[in-house]
């Protein structure tokens, strides 16, 4: 499923967070969004699944505006993974994954459990199905969060700094899972500070600064041959 | 010495206690438990409704909830019980006859609901907004997200405060004696007081007090136990997890057992 944004504007009070974002991610492509903190990266992701509504502009999935769609139905087709994992601490790992399957897809308990266990198997955590998230490491929690999102068979995945809250030694496991997913042809919009990941996995790197797309292009171009002063400056700080 | 002996007999006259004991066990205790239990159930249900109203997006629910809470928390329990139990007595008489219990339970419930509503509201409000966001991102409606994710977490956090309120309710149930009880309706306090009046010493009342303590003290310890468990369960550091058979490239177990335990108190 392709994702495109057209001239998206969004303000919080007097603070303009997004100031005309145009973006196009083709079906099966991975776009990495980079940029300094406060540049509007996370806000942009939330506009795609309508956790936030744009003041102006449009978001298109396969050419159809999301603003015309029921938000809850829309979100079932878009998986989202958060910086702080946001697992439900009062439920077991298994129930974290089965909750939406049972509530929204109306699967029976057995069907949901089977599907969830298969999904947990894929992220290597089937054996943790019965524990609470609080007993897992950050990396394991994030892999459960990815399983929770994937269980709904989304057509698009949004990653909001999925590895920023992880200890360095746990980052790799989550990134390799994301790379695997990209390799399988999932359409992904990835907000990240992991430049190595962006360079290797992204089809497109988008540099956001102060609510605008300053530069976008294939990783080789963005990283090796920045055209703007601001991107060059940003890269010199993070690389 | 004689004064001391008199004092001793005032409080610890075993004969008076023995006399009051059977009726306390067969009449007083069941009645007190009945009053407390029914008002606890009704008060908790009403309290949850109040909490929901207090958190509603429309002020037409928020404001009435606020007003209700201010009124019933602000009035002395005795005033509320008398106003409702005596004031509405003609209605009660028409509906179920001369039994003061329904109105007494109603009054106790209305008071408890005001406190319990505030307890639940603060608990629900303490749940991080990111939990709601994550639930909505899965595609669940606002209502389903509240019911399945936010409220269960919020209520869990305030269970100790809720049990405290139940303890207050058990003690306040003694106030229904204001409403005039026939012999079979008397609860612990009233029976203790009646025997005390007859025997001329306070031993039966002290016995009633002991009954209250036998109910409430275990509850206070239950609160502490629940509180401790919730705290450990919530802030519990990751368990040592060296048996992860997958060992995805680069992902090591979080920490050793020792340091994992230390983070618990961090």
Structural summary, described in words:
The complex is a heterodimer of chains A (239) and B (266). Chain A is α/β, with parallel strands linked by helices and 239 residues long. Chain A has 2 domains: 3-77 and 155-238, P-loop containing nucleotide triphosphate hydrolases (Rossmann fold, 3-Layer(aba) Sandwich), CATH 3.40.50.300; 87-153, no CATH class. In chain A, 38% of the residues lie in helices and 25% in strands. Chain A has helices at 41-48, 71-76, 93-103, 109-122, 138-150, 168-183, 195-201, 219-224, 229-238, and strands at residues 3-12, 15-25, 30-34, 56-61, 64-65, 78-81, 156-160, 187-191, 204-209, 212-217. In chain A, the strands form 2 sheets. Chain A has a 6-stranded mixed sheet, with helices on both faces. In chain A, helix 3 runs parallel beside helix 5, helix 4 (109-122) packs across helix 5 (138-150) and helix 5 runs parallel beside helix 6. Chain A is globular and about 55 Å long. Chain B is elongated and about 75 Å long. In chain B, helix 2 (14-54) runs antiparallel to helix 10. The longest helix of chain B is centred in the N-terminal third of the chain and has 41 residues, at 14-54. Chain B has a domain at 21-189: MetI-like fold. With 266 residues, chain B is mainly α. Chain B has 12 helices and no strands. The interface between A and B is large, with 44 and 34 residues. Chain B: Residues 234-266 are annotated as: Disordered. Chain B: Belongs to the binding-protein-dependent transport system permease family. HisMQ subfamily.
